[in-house]
Structures are given as structure tokens and as C-alpha cells.
Amino acid sequence: MYGTIKKVAAIHDLSGFGRASLTAIIPTLSSMGIQVCPLPTAILSNHTGGFSNYSYVDLTDSMEEYINMWKQLKLEFDCIYSGFLGSTRQINIVSDFIDHFGKNDNLVVVDPVMGDNGQLYSSYSPDIIPQMRKLVAKADLITPNFTEAAFLLGKDKCPESIDSQEIKAWLRELSDMGPDIVVITSVPDKDIRDNTLVAAFDKINGIFWKVGCKYIPAAYPGTGDTFASVLIGSLLQGDSLPVSLDRAVQFISQCIKASYGFNYPKRNGVLLEKELGILNMPVLISGYEML
Ligand code: PXL
Questions:
Q1: How far away, in angstroms, is 77 Cα from ligand 1 center?
Q2: How far is CA 206 from CA 69, 122, 199, 209, 265, in A?
Q3: 281-291, pLDDT tens digit by residue?
Q4: Residue range 80-129, pLDDT digits in tens
Q5: Is 13 strand, coil or helix?
Q6: Whose CA is nearest to atom 8 of ligand 1?
Q7: Using alpha carbons only, how large is the chain's radius of gyration in Å?
Q8: Does residue 6 have its Cβ closer than 6 Å to ligand 1?
Q9: What is the DSSP annotation of 159-190?
Q10: What are 28-38's pLDDT values in tens digits?
Q11: Full-model pTM
Q12: From CA 32, how far away is CA 52, in angstroms rounded?
């Protein structure tokens, strides 16, 4: 028998420095006992969050041949997980990839990576937004941050905070685009002061969830990738959606708290390597609630 390790096809860029995308996703999922098979979208010297310069090799033209080899190898994946794309043209490639490798019993996750703090990332132009909606329609689960959720919903601008009724409407509207599960991260809570939420909607069961944590004034690039990786790893390990959300929020909070006391540039990312061992500790559920 070949073994029972689960496999994730991870469609993201490789950024050499800064602990974002594949350099965060591979160690996180590997630590959770899951094999990551990367399908790189671009190669950068460093991620674009907080660095004004970076080298950039767009891999759009090599992806088709790479995927054809995977088709010849008849690979099968327990999860397809896409994130940062190297060009708008890659939307069609990823969409075809989902058509070929997506099955009834695997999990298709689209993290519609486009921006943060109300702004698009510098490597993207606004024409990514309508294209990304096409990919979202094919996903079982999406994990936009608050800014990306506003972009997908065509909001003129990203509000400063949002109450529970409104965020539920956002979640429902995003699920109407296709996905069964919508998870919005970094939601600034209007109802509780200094609170940041992860808010989620499970369309099949009609349940809204939230996990809150006290706002920490520190934004480290790459935490969205690590968050989605823990969420996916936990779901693949057989945890429920609220437990998986709880584990992902706890892990990111722990990484931020372990990093914040050290005085180094936030753009270097959280001290992931110090914390990965926690992912193998028994799970203590701490804070999920119904929204
Ligand atoms: O973490 C998202 C991300 C992924 N890839 C690249 C990025 C960013 C965020 O800044 O720059 C290249």
C-alpha cells in the first residue's frame, strides 16, 4: 500500500524571502502531516508586502506543460488550494486545473489573494477582480480577507468596521457566487471594541460562525497563507469547520504574539519556525461562537 498521506496541490508563488505563500504553506501543511505538491505561479525574490522592490518571473507560460505532466502521472489530490497568481491569464489555467483534478470528494479552496488594508497588491491591476470572481465560483471554500471580500462584492470602498448583520449579508452574498463555505479574515468588529474576527458561513448547514481575537496593531504579510493552511490541514485531519477555524486563529495569534516582542521589520513575516511544533499538540478549543 502506498500510504495514507493526504496531498494538496498548492497553486501559489514562491517568494524567496518573507514567509508568504509557498514558504509559509509548505512548512505549515507538512507539519500537519500533509504532503504539499506546489504548482508555482511566479518566482519572486521576496513578497510584495512592505518591500518596494522585488524580482519577478511570471510562470504562466510554463504552467500548462507542468500540469500536463501531472495529468500523465494521473495524480490525484485531496485538496486543490490556489492563492497568489502570477498573471490574470492564470485564472483560466487554474479554472481548467479545477475542472480536471476537482472531484466530488476533494476540497477546492480558492484564497482570492488580491490585496489588503483596502488596497490591491502592487503586482496586480484591477482587472484581476472580475476574473477572480470566476475562480471563486468554482471553489468549495474561499478565504478572502476583509479587503478582498469587499473587492469581490464590488464595494466602492472598504468600510472601517462592520457589524454582525452586515458581515452575515457579505458572507451570504459571497456564498451565492458559488462556494459552500465562505471564511472572511481580518474583519474589524463594529460591535466589540478592538476586536478582530474571522467570520464564516456554512451554506449547506445554514450556520454562521465567528472566532474573535483582540486586535494587535501588527500586520505581518503571509499570515493569510498560514491561516488558510492551518484551516485546510485541520479540515483534512477530520476536524469540523468551527474547530478548524479556532485552530487557525489560535495558531496565527500565537505566531503574532511570539513575534511582536522582537523588534524586526514586520515584512520579514512571523517567526513561524519557532511555533510550528504547536500544530502537533492536542487541540484545546478556546473561542468559536455562532455569529
Ligand atoms: O501572502 C500573500 C502574498 C502572496 N504572494 C506574494 C505577496 C503576498 C502578499 O503580499 O506579495 C508575492
A1: 24
A2: 40, 37, 14, 10, 42
A3: 988 887 899 99
A4: 999 999 999 999 999 999 999 999 999 999 999 999 999 999 889 999 99
A5: strand
A6: 47
A7: 18
A8: no
A9: -S-B-HHHHHHHHHHHHHTS-SEEEEEEEEBS
A10: 999 999 999 99
A11: 0.97
A12: 33
Average pLDDT of the segment spanning 155-173: 95
Residue with CA closest to ligand 1 atom 6 = 47
The Å distance, Cα 8 to ligand 1 centre, comes to: 19
For ligand 1, atom 2, the nearest C-alpha belongs to 222
DSSP state of 145: B
- Which tens digit of pLDDT belongs to each residue from 183-235? 999 999 999 999 999 999 999 999 999 999 887 777 899 999 999 999 999 99
Distance CA 79, CA 280 (A): 20
Name every residue whose Cβ is closer than 8 Å to that of residue 209 and which is 6 or more positions away in sequence: 199, 200, 201, 202, 241, 242, 245, 288, 289, 290, 291
Q: How far apart are CA 48 and CA 64, in angstroms?
A: 25
